[in-house]
Design brief:
31% of the residues lie in helices and 25% in strands. It is α/β, with parallel strands linked by helices. Bound molecules: ligand LLP. Homodimer.
Amino acid sequence: PNPHLADGPAGLALDGVALADIARQFGTPTYVYSARALRENFASYQQALAGRKHRVCYAMKANSNLSILKLLAGMGAGFDIVSAGELARVLAAGGDPAGIVFSGVGKQVAEIEAALNAGGSGIGCFNVESATELARIEQVAARLGKRAPVSFRVNPDVDPKTHPYISTGLKDNKFGVAFGTAIDLYRRAAASAHLKVVGIDCHIGSQIIDPAPFMEALDKMLDLVEQLEREGIVIEHFDLGGGLGITYRDEAPPTPAQYLAPILARFDARGHGSKTFMLEPGRSIVGNAGLLLSTVQVIKQAASKRFCIVDAAMNDYMRPAMYGAYSEIVEVAPQGDAAVHDVVGPVCESGDWLGRDRLLAVAEGDLLALLSAGAYGMSMASNYNTRGRAAEVLVDAGQVRLIRRRETIDMQLADELAALQAR
Ligand code: LLP
C-alpha cells in the first residue's frame, strides 16, 4: 500500500530514511508522511484534469496538518472545509480563500460569517445542504453587505457500495438536499440579491473502489444541471466530490486518471466541457502517503490468543475500532520466528485493536509500522485515557522534519489547571 517504503540495511525506510532512525529521534507513536507521495498523489489528479478548467479541493478532514496543507497549497490545491476551525487552518497554511469550498450539514452563523470574510473577499463557494442553511447564508450575507457564492450539495441517491458509516449519497443519509427539491432551492438562490449561484456538487461516499456509482451520480447530476439551464440558471462549476478509495489490503482502485477518463468523456459529450470540473478528494491524496510507527511494549499470551501490545492505540488510529477497518502492519526489522498476533493498544477497551490475526516476527521493544494511515488517522485522534496525541513528521528529499510535536501532559492539562487555579 505504500509505494515509497523499501527494505534498507536498518530495516524499513521511507524515501530513504530509516524508520528506526525516526523512532530514535522522535519517539513513538509517530505518524510519518512522505512528501513525495503527497506530491505524486496530488499531481495525478492535476494531470488527469490538465487542459480543462478545474480545481482539486483537498478534503482536509482526512489530514489537516498545516505543513501538509501548505505543501498542497503550494501545488495549487483548493480545500474542502467543514468548519471554521478548518478554515482557520487553511488560512494559517497560506491557502487561497477563493479556492475553498465549505461543506457540512450544520454550518453555524459564526462560521458562515468567517467564511464570507475570509481574506477580505471570502471563500469560493458554500456547498449548501438544506433550505435552512440557504436562508441563514442569505441573512448573514445581507447583514455583511455581501453576495455569497453558493452551490447545492445534491444527494443523487446512489449506492457507493462501501461501509455504511461512510456512504453519504443515499436518500436516507443526512447529507445534501434531496434530488427532487434541488430545483426549487436553485430558483430561490437565483432570485436572491445576496446569493450567487456558482455551482453544483455531490459526494456519495468514501473508500469507493468501483467507479460505476460515480458515473451514475454524474449522469443524475448532469440531468439536473440541464434542467436548471433550461430555466436560465447557469452554473460555472461542477463538483463530483471525493471518495476514490485506496489500497489497504488487496483493493485495486482505479488511478485518478483511470477513474476520471470515462467521467470526463461523458461530461464533455453531454456538452459541459467548458465548465470548471471540481473534485474533493481526501483519502486518495494522503492515505497511502502516511504510516503510524509504534513500539511493541508487551507480548502477552492469553488462552488461545497472542497479543502484541504496542504504544499506539485506538485514540491514535480509530479506524479499526470504529469501522473494523484493515491496515497492513509490518515489522520494521523482523526478527525471530513469526507467530500470529492480535496487535492492540494499551487503552482500556476490548475494541482497542489495530490488527487481528497478523503473522508477525516481533519481540518486545521492536518497531511496527501500520500502513495507509495518512488519512483519517491523526485527524481523528483523541486524548482518550489521557494519552497525548502522537508526533507527526514529514520525510522530504531524505530529510525528516517534525511537523507537530508530541502532545505533552502539560499541554493536555493546561486548560483544566487554569480552571482549578481560577477558583
Ligand atoms: N467531500 C465531502 C463533502 C466529504 O464528506 C468527504 C469525506 C470528502 C469530500 C472526502 O472523501 P474521501 O476522498 O476522503 O473519501 N472517517 C472515515 C471517512 C469519512 C469520510 C467523510 N467525508 C474513514 O476513516 O474511513
